[in-house]
Amino acid sequence: MGSRASSLLREEDIEEIKKETGFSHSQITRLYSRFHSLDKGENGALSREDFQRIPELAINPLGDRIINAFFPEGEDQVNFRGFMRTLAHFRPVEDNEKNKDPNSGEPLNSRNNKLLFAFRLYDLDRDDKISRDELLQVLRMMVGVNISDEQLGSIADRTIQEADTNGDMSISFSEFIKVLEKVDVEQKMSIRFLH
Amino acid sequence: MDWTLFFFLSASFRRRNYETLHVSEFVLKNVIAFMEDVWPMLRMAFVVLVLLIMLPAMFGLSLGITEAYMKILIKTLEWATLKIQKNSEEKKTLKPSSSNGLIQRDDSSLEKEIVELRRNRPRPVEGGDFALSDVFYFSRRGVESIMEDEVTHRFSSEELASWNLLTRTNNNFHYISLRLTILWGVGVCIRYGILLPLRVTLAAIGISWLVVGTTGVGFLPSCRLKDWLSELVHVMCYRICARGLSATIHYHNRENKPKKGGICVANHTSPIDVVILANDGGYAMVGQVHGGLMGVIQRAMVRACPHIWFERAEMKDRHLVTKRLRDHVNDKNKLPILIFPEGTCINNTSVMMFKKGSFEIGGTIYPVAIKYDPQFGDAFWNSGKYNMVSYLLRMMTSWAIVCNVWYLPPMTQQEGEDAVQFANRVKSAIAHQGGLVDLSWDGGLKRAKVKDTFRQEQQKIYSHMLVRDDSSD
C-alpha cells in the first residue's frame, strides 16, 4: 500500500506544532513526510539508527552530537513533536516576530535558543558548563587523528582562557554568549525553506 | 496490493453482520451464474486478444491496440489531473510539489564558511586557530541533511506531482470527487480483471517460448544460422514479455546501438531494464546462477548463445570475473555484454556511483540511458520492501510502462585516465542524457553504512584550518 503519511497527522496536531514552533502548515506536512520516510520501523518514532542511516549526517564529524540533541535526557526514541521542536531552533528569525506578545515565551528560534543549541553540543553532561574535557572531546571529534593531544590541549586551554571571566576554568552559558556576541548567529544557524 | 476490492466481502464476514452476509452471498451467486453463461464467450475473446497482441509483437509489428489504449489512458489521466488541480484551487489547499527541494542549500566549502564565522574575531597570534563558533557550520549542515538529503530518497519510489489513479501512489491526495472515485474504481476493475490475466498469460507464453526455443536452437551445430536463430528467439520472447507489461519503448539514436564485442552499460532501475533493452537487439547477459525457474531459464538461454553466469563463490574473485568478461569481449563474434555498474536498483531520479570493475575490462563501452515515465507506472524495484513476485504483480497491474532509451556514442578509456575517472565520465554522460541527477554516492548505501573515509576527509580539511602546516603535526 502507498504510504498514507499526511493522513496520520491530524489538523489539531498541526495547529499545535505551528503554535509551538512557528513552522507553516505546508512546512509541517513536508517535514512529516520526511519524518515518516526516516522511520523505517514505522512506529511513529525515530531511533538513533534511523538518523545514522542518512549518509551525509554519518560523515559529519559532529553527527553523533547533533543526533543526541534530538533525544531528551535518557530516551531512545523521539516522536514527531520532539523532532519538530529541535528542528525549530534552525528556523530563520522573521522580523514580524519581534513584535509578538511577550507572554508567549521565547520562541524556539530566538538568538538565545540557537546559542543554547550550540552550547549543548559541547556540554554533554548538561551541567551548564563547558569543562576542559568536554571541549577536548568536541575538538577531537572535529579533527580526527590529524592533531596531537598536546596541541589540542593547548588550543582548548587558550579557548577557555579567552572566554572564562569568572576564573572557574570552564565556560558557562553567559560567557559563551559573550564570546560569540559579534557572530551573526541568526543567519549562520538558520535554514531557509524554499516555500 | 490494494485489497479494497475484497474489503466489502471480508468486512461483512468480520463484523458477523448476517444481513450483509446474505446480501454478499446473493451477489456472488448471481455473478457466478452470469459468469457460467458467459464464460465460453469470454474465454474465446481472451484467446483472440492474446493472439492479436502476441503474433504481431513477435515479428516487430503492431496492430495499434496498445497505441489506442495509451491514447485513451493519457486523455483520462489529463482529465483527472485537471480535476484535482481545480479542486485544490477551490479548497485553497496548495499541496507543495514534492519534486522541488524543501530547503535552500548552498554548496560553499567548509573553509569558506568557517572563515565567515570567524570574521569578527581577532586571529590568535600563535598556537591553533579555533573558535567556539566553528561548531555552527557542522551543526547547520547536519540539521540540513536531517531535513533533506540527496541519498536516502533515491531508494524509494519517486513521489508524483499529480495522482495517476493508482492507490499505491496516493500519498497526499484525498477524496476529491465522486466521478474521480468512480473512475478509480473502474480502473481497478480493468487493471485487475482484464489487464492482469492478459499480461500474466503473455508473460507465461513469452517465458515458455524462451525456454523451448532456446533449447531447440541449442541442438543445432555452431554456425551462423544458429546465431541468427538464437537472436530471433531471444528478441521474440522479450517482445512478448514487453507486451506482457504494456511497455511502450522509444529508442533514440539507434545508430549508436551496441555492437558485438562491446560492453553495454546502463543505469539500473528494475529487472525489467533487461526486457526493455533486449527488445531492440541481442545481448549477452551477466549474472549470478539462480535455482528454480530462473535457473531453468538461465540454462536454456546458455544453450542457444553464450551468456555469462557466475556461481556465487566465483563472484567474490574479482580477477576471475574480469578474466571471463574480458575473454567474452575479445571474441568479436559474441554479443555485447549488458552490465549495470550501479550494482543495485535506484529509483530513476538519479544515477549513483558506477563500480569500476566493468570499466577495467577494456573494450568499447556503449552507454545507454533509460528513463521511465512515472505517470503510467512506477518501475522501480524497492527490493527491501517487495520481493520479486509482488514486484511483478505491481508491474502487471500498473497502467503501462513507458520509457525512453537513449543510445549514447561509444566511449573508450583515454590516456592517463584511470578506471574510476572513466566510470565517472560515462556516468555523467548517461545522467546528462536521461535528465537524471549525477551523484557520487554509492548505491550500496541502500543497505550498508557509509565508509569512514568521507568523514576523515572533512576532519582533515578542518584540521588544516586549526593548525598551520609549518607547525609540527
From TrEMBL, chain A:
Q: Where in the cell is it found?
A: Cell membrane; Cytoplasm; Nucleus
Task: Give a yes or no for keyword Repeat in this entry.
Answer: yes
**Pfam families with a match to the protein in the record:** EF-hand_7
Question: GO molecular-function annotation terms?
Answer: calcium ion binding
Superkingdom of origin organism: Eukaryota
Q: Which SUPFAM superfamilies match?
A: EF-hand
One cellular component term from this protein's GO annotations in UniProt:
nucleus
Enumerate the SMART domains for this protein: EFh (SM00054)
Q: Which UniProt keywords apply?
A: Calcium, Cell membrane, Cytoplasm, Lipoprotein, Membrane, Metal-binding, Myristate, Nucleus, Phosphoprotein, Protein transport, Repeat, Transport
Which residues are in the EF-hand domain?
A: 26-61, 110-145, 151-186
The record's section on InterPro entries has: Calcineurin_B_homologous, EF-hand-dom_pair, EF_Hand_1_Ca_BS, EF_hand_dom
Q: List this protein's GO terms for biological process.
A: protein transport
The record's annotation in PROSITE patterns points to: EF_HAND_1, EF_HAND_2
Q: Which family does it belong to?
A: Belongs to the calcineurin regulatory subunit family. CHP subfamily.
Q: What protein does this entry describe?
A: Calcineurin-like EF-hand protein 1
Originating species: Electrophorus electricus (Electric eel)
From TrEMBL, chain B:
Transmembrane stretches in the record are 44-65, 176-194, 200-220
Where found, per UniProt?
Answer: Endoplasmic reticulum membrane
Q: Which Pfam families match?
A: Acyltransferase
One Gene Ontology BP term is: phospholipid biosynthetic process
Say which domain of life the source belongs to: Eukaryota
Entries under InterPro entries matching the protein: LPCAT1-like, Plipid/glycerol_acylTrfase
Which pathway? Lipid metabolism; Glycerolipid metabolism; triacylglycerol biosynthesis; Phospholipid metabolism; CDP-diacylglycerol biosynthesis; CDP-diacylglycerol from sn-glycerol 3-phosphate: step 1/3
Per UniProt, the keywords (alphabetical) are:
Acyltransferase, Endoplasmic reticulum, Lipid biosynthesis, Lipid metabolism, Membrane, Phospholipid biosynthesis, Phospholipid metabolism, Transferase, Transmembrane, Transmembrane helix
One GO MF term attached to the UniProt entry: glycerol-3-phosphate O-acyltransferase activity
Q: How does it sit in the membrane?
A: Multi-pass membrane protein
Q: Which PANTHER family match?
A: GLYCEROL-3-PHOSPHATE ACYLTRANSFERASE 3 (PTHR23063:SF10), PHOSPHOLIPID ACYLTRANSFERASE (PTHR23063)
Identification of the protein by name: 1-acylglycerol-3-phosphate O-acyltransferase 9, like
Q: Which organism is it from?
A: Electrophorus electricus
Gene assigned in the entry: agpat9l
